[in-house]
Amino acid sequence: MRRGIIALAAAGLLAVTGLTACGGDDGDNGGSSSKKPKIGVILPDSKSSARWETADRKYLEAAFKAAGVDYDIQNAQNDKNAFQTIADQMLTSGVTALMIVNLDSGTGKAVLDKAKNQGVPTIDYDRLTLNGSASYYVSFDNVAVGKLQGEGLVKCLTAGGKTKPVVAELNGSPTDNNATLFKQGYDGVLKPKFDSGEFVKGPDQSVPEWDNAQAATIFEQMFTSTGGKIDGVLAANDGLGNAAVTVLKKNNLNGKVPVTGQDATVQGLQNVLLGDQCMTVYKAIKKEADAAAALAIGLAKGEKKDTGQKVRDPEGNRDVPAVLLEPQSITKENVKAVIDDGFATKAEVCTGAVAAKCTEAGI
Ligand code: BGC
């Protein structure tokens, strides 16, 4: 009897020791070094912005290939159930690090917490999951992105010379923390102008899930409800901006009403060169992907690097180790910089009527 107890206790001890050794998760999300490194990435969709499939996937893939690590990059196509299913499949397949772009904080948190419970470290890529548990957050300074949009619109409106211009706002998805940060940035620039009476605040609406088609409907309604009296549009990305441009075109107002954007998509750059869009924001996604890939590769191998930066998760009340990159404002004058950086090619941007504009812009 006594012997039995001792044997059981010893077995228990062994089991515990064994768990610690192979689980590798001692609370710091250190990852497991005993498994073959494999990185899972879940992208959000392919419609809210061209970037996810044309830039992020490409650059992440290149970084993983260069490092010779196994990877699996999938796109949830804006489906929250699919997002969870992909995460489950990746965890079952034995990924040793998981990177996500959440569709909202709730879905993101469920996935991050599940991974954590299985000892798999995680990265919030581009969007911070509020109250989440990611080991790192890699993104841009998103308040700075919004500030560039606000300043860009002010510049275009001032150049247009209209007094007391009415400014409409087409914000990003209310469930994307980035949309909140962008708005914080541009409202910081616009609000003082509204308060002083220099500008007039027009309709201000969020676009659910950054849906470009819905954005056109929303902007159409804004346009109708104001009797067409909109003089400038703060659109949070190129897709939303293009939706506004489409409506303005129908009313022969494109090029007369400045519209902002973000992502330096081919369409956005073309709209800028044609004069239909006042500016876009270039985020060097190669840098973002490279930084995230380097951290993920480290995590997948059981290493944790110091990023030297952190952001506060206001809902989880914790500091998340972060990499935050600087965005750049792009107008007609410097579209060339985006092409020189290799983010877009002259062949894809300078087509049709845009070709002559490219020549004018020195591209
Ligand atoms: C990203 C933007 C993108 C938007 C829609 C945001 O979280 O930061 O680059 O345009 O989502 O996909």
Describe this structure in words.
The protein has 363 residues and is of the alpha/beta class. 48% of the residues lie in helices and 17% in strands. Helix 6 links the parallel strand 6 and strand 7. Helix 3 (80-92) packs parallel to helix 4 and helix 7 (212-225) crosses helix 8 (238-250). The termini are far apart. The protein binds beta-D-glucopyranose (BGC). The site of beta-D-glucopyranose (BGC) has 12 residues, from loops. Beta-D-glucopyranose is lined by residues 48-49, 51, 126-127, 172, 176, 178, 210, 237, 262-263.
Q: Helices, strands, pairings?
A:
Blueprint (H helix, E strand, L loop, with lengths): L1 H22 L14 E6 L7 H17 L2 E6 L4 H13 L4 E4 L4 H13 L4 E4 L10 E5 L1 H19 L5 E6 L5 H20 L3 E7 L5 H14 L6 E4 L2 H13 L15 H9 L5 E3 L2 H16 L8 E5 L4 E8 L2 E3 L4 H6 L5 H4 L4 H7 L3
Parallel strand pairs: 1-2, 1-3, 3-4, 4-5, 5-11, 6-7, 6-8
Antiparallel strand pairs: 9-12, 10-11
The chain binds beta-D-glucopyranose (BGC).
Q: Could you give a quick summary of the protein structure above?
A:
With 363 residues, the protein is an alpha/beta fold.
Helix percentage: 40-55%
Rounded average pLDDT? 92
* Euclidean distance between termini CA atoms: 86 Å
Structure class: alpha/beta
Small-molecule binders here are:
beta-D-glucopyranose
Shape: globular
Task: List the helices and strands in order.
Answer: HEHEHEHEEHEHEHEHHEHEEEHHH
The tally of helices reads 13
Enumerate the spans where pLDDT stays under 50 for 5 or more consecutive residues: 1-32
Largest sheet: 7 strands, mixed
The side-by-side strand order for the widest beta sheet comes to: 2-1-3-4-5-11-10
What is the gyration radius calculated from CA atoms? 23 Å
What is the count of β-strands? 12
The proportion of strand residues reads 15-25%
